[in-house]
Write a structure and sequence with these properties.
single chain; mainly beta; eight-stranded parallel sheet; 35 strands
Length: about 375
């Protein structure tokens, strides 16, 4: 029942970086249970290189009367995130990432929607993001262009997944790879299979490891890398933590502290440590300029004109792309926007220049209620 305050960050666990850097922040979120009702996301990530690995998300739902969108994981103003070995079930939205991303990795997760025909995995404005070796049921994975937005997903890889009563909606994906997926119906992409998978935990598994393919199942041993399609419990995912006792995926229940493959989790001084992983930097000269941007007026009201101005760059030739919420982007280094409703808004900006530098900034702003009309007296 965790509901955050109106002016608070939206996640039960929130990671923010101002400005967004070009090296991993060193934050790993591992072997936790996020669940129960409440008006807040499970995890909201707005930093570079965050690892979300081996957690259980269970029961994070959009209840009636909520004024905020509630997601198991929301990516907002982030880059190079790794989401791996998680068990997601009983949710309204599993992964919400329509506002942009750069080389995010989503791998080896179990994503089970409680209702059929859901749209619980959303990607927008992604560049080089991969969605591989996941087992998905009852929800489509969207990698498309949102309404009123001309920025497509580019160079995504949707591969080696098991999709039960699920599929890909990727009409807005440019230069994207869809292949080696197993579908229970309606196969798309190259080297796809249409068959009914058999799972180690039976027809309706109740643990993370139970959703691995059983011996003799279609898709067993014939993924693009020679392993099983869908999850491979214990598989090594680049960028995930090295947890003593083995990497076994999400726990078996709420806060049990036991990994699904039998390894024990660590805590305290012997907790998870990051492996030595070299991630690419964003741009050749990411520190070439600051990403402090300006807004006028400083306390804008709903319905009024808000001007956002990006800083100049040393090399010149700057180009700017702004994210102004829920998948809407604007181009230009000085833009004017209007927000119809009061409340907290998350603004992002991506700035590049002719030197090859690319940096990002993000800031939460508060839009004040509309001014009350004053009555004129005769």
């Amino acid at each position: 029942g965790i509901s955050v305050c109106a002016s608070c960050a939206e996640g039960r666990l929130e990671v923010r970086q101002y400005p967004l850097g070009s090296q991993p922040v060193g934050v790993t979120i591992s072997h936790n249970h996020f669940g129960g009702a409440g008006q807040s996301d499970g995890v909201q990530d707005g930093a570079y290189g965050v690892v979300i690995d081996g957690n259980t998300f269970d029961g994070i739902v959009q209840a009636g009367g909520y004024t905020r969108h509630v997601d198991s994981i929301q990516l907002y103003g982030q880059s190079h995130t790794t989401i791996s070995n998680n068990y997601m079930r009983n949710f309204t939205t599993a992964i919400m990432a329509p506002d942009g991303g750069d080389h995010e990795v989503v791998a080896n997760n179990v994503i089970i929607s409680p209702t059929a025909n859901a749209s619980a995995v959303q990607f927008g404005h992604q560049n080089g993001t991969t969605f591989t070796h996941n087992t998905v049921k009852n929800t489509d994975v969207h990698a498309w262009v949102g309404a009123g937005d001309a920025t497509p997903n580019r160079s995504m890889v949707l591969q080696d997944n098991v999709m039960v009563a699920a599929g890909f909606v990727a009409g807005g994906c440019v230069s994207c790879t869809v292949g080696y997926n197993l579908f229970s119906k309606g196969a798309t992409g190259t080297n796809a299979l249409t068959a009914t998978p058999a799972f180690a935990g039976g027809s309706n598994p109740t643990t993370y490891a139970g959703w691995a393919l059983a011996s003799g199942s279609p898709g067993k041993g014939n993924a693009s890398d020679g392993t099983d399609r869908g999850i491979n419990p214990g598989a090594s995912i680049p960028g995930t933590p090295n947890v003593p006792g083995g990497s076994g995926g999400a726990g078996t229940g709420a806060g049990t502290g036991t990994s699904a493959a039998g390894g024990s989790t660590a805590s305290g001084a012997n907790g998870p440590t990051l492996t030595d992983v070299s991630l690419p930097t964003i741009g050749a000269r990411a520190s070439a300029f600051s990403v402090r941007w300006h807004m006028k007026p400083r306390k804008p009201r709903a319905g009024t004109r808000v001007v956002l101005t990006a800083p100049k760059t040393r090399a010149g030739g700057r180009k700017c792309v702004w994210g102004v919420g829920r998948g809407v982007t604007r181009r230009g280094c000085e833009i004017a926007v209007r927000f119809a409703k009061a409340g907290r808004k998350h603004i992002t900006v991506r700035i590049s220049d002719r030197s090859g530098a690319v940096v990002r900034g993000a800031r939460d702003i508060t839009i004040q209620p509309r001014a009350k009309a004053t009555k004129k007296h005769a």
